[in-house]
What we know:
Elements: H1 2-16, H2 22-53, H3 58-65, H4 69-92, E1 94-95, H5 97-112, H6 119-126, H7 131-138, H8 143-153, E2 157-161, E3 164-168, H9 174-187, E4 192-193, H10 195-203, H11 209-216, H12 221-228, E5 241-243, E6 263-266, E7 269-272, H13 273-285
Parallel strand pairs: 1-4
Antiparallel strand pairs: 2-3, 5-6, 6-7
Helix pairs in contact: 1-2, 2-13, 3-4, 4-9, 5-6, 6-10, 6-11, 8-11, 9-10, 10-12
Amino acid sequence: MGEVNVRALVEAVHERASSDDPLVLLENAIAVATETSGAADDLIEHYVGAARAANVSWTLIGQRLGVSKQAARQKFAHRLEVSDVIGAAADAMVMAPRLSACLQAAQTAADADDSVPGTQHLLLGLLHVGAAANILDRLGVTRDKVREANTRLFEPAMIADDGQERRVVGDGEAEQAVTGARRLAARRGQSQFRTEHLLFCLALDPGSSARRVLNDLGVDPEHVKKELEEWIAPVQRRHRRIGKAKGIDRACSFCGCKDLGPLIAGPGAWICGTCAQTAIEILRAEPRGLRTG
């Protein structure tokens, strides 16, 4: 299983990289490692939050994590509070009228399929009106193209939900995507969530039916993201730096070493010189048949 995961990550690095230059590949490898590490942290944080909601003590949580209760509280308590604040802000956020009109159009598209709304229906809805419609127009995405791709890519399926069967075409995840757009707008400190927030969530979710349609139409998600830059407020990010890691909690995210000299740092991840050199050697030796980009 570990080998399969490594090969998948290597493939992801090559898909992102703009060239075969070892340093470009290394930079992209660090980015992929950072994102993977972040996803793992989010997963653990989710279940720590669930444990706290069930009144489990920090002492017991710390024992499961292999740290003291103080360390567990210090790492997760503030993050859970911030998450609660974002959730409250998202719940209170107002939906822009244009997005409301787009969601009605998406529901109409889902009704035509006799299906629970999926993200591919949201993509059709976003072509109705708003900033997202203008962006999709510039990228050559039309209703006819999306409808044709939907028909070709997705077949109806019956799935069980709360003891009842429902017909789904595509992923049936429209509601979750709208919730994600609401939370995205809240995280960016904006007063409304709009069509551009929803398009961002659809295009940047690699597992969504909407993303599959965009891929089929030859639309690069990075182009969508670039088009959205002027519409969605940026998130402040820490500058990547190279230097001596300070403190006992700083260690290479790959081998766990703390005493092999300077570490290359990114948001939430570190890599030592030894692992960096190993990564370069792996990437140089990787058969080209794995590359899809």
